[in-house]
Write a structure and sequence with these properties.
The chain is built from no helices and 8 strands. The chain is mainly β and 100 residues long. The protein has one domain. The strands form 2 sheets. A 5-stranded mixed beta sheet has the order 3-4-1-7-8, with no helix packed on it. Strands 2-5-6 form a 3-stranded antiparallel beta sheet, with no helix packed on it.
Length: 100
């Protein structure tokens, strides 16, 4: 898969509290970095409209025996060869374009 044909969404980056769980009902297509990386904070998404399920990370709520999390559905529209990030906006996740 050519990365330049897709949008890149940063979800599990330092400071981010959200992780992409699914894109259009399927597991996210994460960029591959190496054999020892178990989760990569970059999700590749084809251009166009998508329904993305994101989960607020447990560590935001502190240590707890019973994990606490909240899932959110986002309807997004992305362009190829652009980078986006999931950020918190008014207490909920939102997708923004990352200017580089």
């Amino acid at each position: 898969m050519a990365h330049w044909r897709h949008a890149v969404i940063e979800d599990y980056v330092v400071g981010s509290t959200y992780e992409i769980i699914s894109v259009n009902g399927e597991l996210p297509n994460r960029r591959k970095h190496g054999i020892f990386v178990t989760i990569v904070p970059l999700v590749l998404v084809s251009k166009g409209r998508h329904e993305v399920l994101v989960r607020e990370r447990n560590d935001r709520f502190g240590e707890d025996v019973n994990p606490k999390y909240k899932d959110y559905k986002l309807n997004i529209n992305v362009e190829a060869n652009k980078t986006y990030r999931i950020v918190e906006n008014n207490g909920k996740p939102s997708l923004i374009l990352v200017e580089r």
